[in-house]
Specification:
The protein is of the alpha/beta class. It is 38% helix and 24% strand. Helix 1 (36-49) crosses helix 2 (67-81) and helix 3 packs across helix 7.
């Protein structure tokens, strides 16, 4: 079995594959204060809940955007699973050509998403990842990663709005009943929801124009369902795209995956 771990700034998504079948997945909070022992015990408990023994894990693949956590999970893999993890970064095979000015600065999560989207859906393809930051990535028909756009995520913007104003409350991020809010809460929900819907629509339109107009659009990430269902320019919603990409990275770099 293969344990795949995608560490974002806010959430960490963990999955287990048996060959190419996803057996289970979990979403936990990313915590920079957790030690390797805390992560190890937490992951063992999650596996135990699905009746998976630590000894069944034969490989671990990690995508992490927080360098200190990468080191912690590396040590956790060795201590708790007796496995040297494959960490997505410079020097590993990805079968995708990165055409940006500085390929090394492209986040591991964006590379993994691009791999999975191109392998599953073909190209040209646009990947929109609704996470702590919202990232838009473009892959052409030849499988070349061209670059993208980065915007503040929905939750970040909502939190800053509350922190930097005197009277605005924290609100649930949902689609409001109407665009014109009849009270402070519904007005905030409208601004957040429809504001980000407009951001997604505009960037996707411009990406499509530069890619030739026929690009498929795939949404992933924690807020993909919320915005993706309303955005008519999004063709596919694939919340587990990154996990699938991590499995593919393992297949590219190791043989005989179990």
């Amino acid at each position: 079995m293969i344990l795949v771990i995608d560490v974002g700034n806010t959430h960490t998504v963990i999955g287990v594959y048996k060959k190419r079948q996803l057996c289970g997945f979990w979403r936990i909070s990313t915590d920079l204060k957790k030690t390797e022992d805390e992560y190890g015990m937490l992951i063992k408990d999650l596996l135990a809940d699905s009746r998976i023994a630590p000894a069944e894990i034969k490989a671990i693949v990690i995508s992490c955007v927080i360098p200190p956590v990468t080191w912690i999970l590396d040590k956790m893999s060795e201590d708790y699973f007796k496995v040297s993890p494959l960490i997505v970064g410079p020097g590993i095979k990805t079968e995708i050509c990165i055409k940006t000015d500085n390929p090394r600065e492209v986040g591991a999560d964006r590379i993994v998403n691009a791999i999975a989207a191109y392998k599953v859906y073909g190209g040209p393809v646009i990947i929109v990842d609704f996470g702590t930051a919202i990232t838009f990535c473009a892959v052409n028909s030849e499988g070349e990663y061209l670059g993208g756009a980065i915007a503040p995520g929905i939750e970040i913007s909502a939190e800053v709005l509350v922190q930097r104003t005197a009277k605005l409350p924290k609100v649930e991020i949902i689609k409001p009943k109407s665009v014109i809010g009849s009270n402070t809460i519904s007005a905030m929900q409208s601004g957040i929801f429809y504001g980000y819907l407009g951001l997604a629509n505009e960037l996707i339109k411009r990406f499509k124009k530069e890619l030739g107009g026929n690009a498929l659009v795939v949404a992933t990430g924690g807020q993909a369902e919320l915005i993706g269902k309303e955005c008519k320019l999004i063709d596919k919603i694939d919340p587990l795209l990154t996990l699938e990409g991590l499995r593919m990275v393992y297949d590219m770099n190791k043989s005989g995956a179990e």
